[in-house]
Amino acid sequence: MIIGYARVSTKEQNIEKYIDELKRAGCEKIYFEKISGGKSERPEFNKMMETIRENDIVVVSDLTRLSRSMKDLINTMELFKSRGVQLKSLKEAWIDTTTAQGELMFNIFSALAEFERKLIKERTKNGLEVARSRGRVGGRPRVDKNKLEMAIKLYNSGECTLKEIKEITGISKTTLYRYLRSNIL
Length: 185
Prior knowledge:
InterPro entries: Homeodomain-like_sf, Recombinase_CS, Resolv_N, Resolvase-like_N_sf, Resolvase_HTH_dom, SSR_resolvase. The chain is an alpha/beta fold. It has two domains: 2-112, Resolvase, N-terminal catalytic domain (Rossmann fold, 3-Layer(aba) Sandwich), CATH 3.40.50.1390; 145-182. It has helices at 15-24, 43-51, 63-66, 70-83, 100-133, 145-157, 162-169, 173-182, and strands spanning 2-8, 29-34, 57-60, 86-89. The radius of gyration is 27 Å and the shape is elongated. It starts with a strand and ends with a helix.
C-alpha cells in the first residue's frame, strides 16, 4: 500500500497543498495533522506507524514534514527498514528507498549518524579522562557520614522540619530519604 504523511506546523500553513501532492503521487491512505514538528507526540504519525506493514511505501512531500531533525529522520528510516517499509520523498527525489540509489543514500545517512554517535562517545570518554587527570571525579558527591548520622537523628526525633535539617546538616531531603529507605550507614 502507498501511504502518505503530511504535517504542517501552524494553522496558517496550507495542509491541502500537501494532501493534493500525495494524492497525485498515488497515495491510497493519507495521514495528516497540524502540529509542530518539535512536538514528540504526533497522533496521526503514531497512527501511521501502527498501521504500516511490510512492503508499504510511505510518501512525504518533503523530509521536513516527516521528521524534526536529522537524527529523528534516520531513526524513522531505520524503523521503516526494520519493518520492510520503503520511504519516498517527492521533493528530495534522491530519498526513495524503492530504488538502488535511494537505498544507497539511506545507507550513507545511516553511516553518518553512526559516525556522529561514535564521535560523541569518543568526546565524552576523552572529556572524562581529562577531568580525572585534573583530579575531578564524576558522579554524586560523597555524603559526609557524620552529617548524615546527625540528619537521621534529627529526622527520627521529629524535632526539626526537613528544611531545618537541610539548613543544619546540608543533607537534602532526597538524600536523607534515600538513606532512610536503604538503611545504609
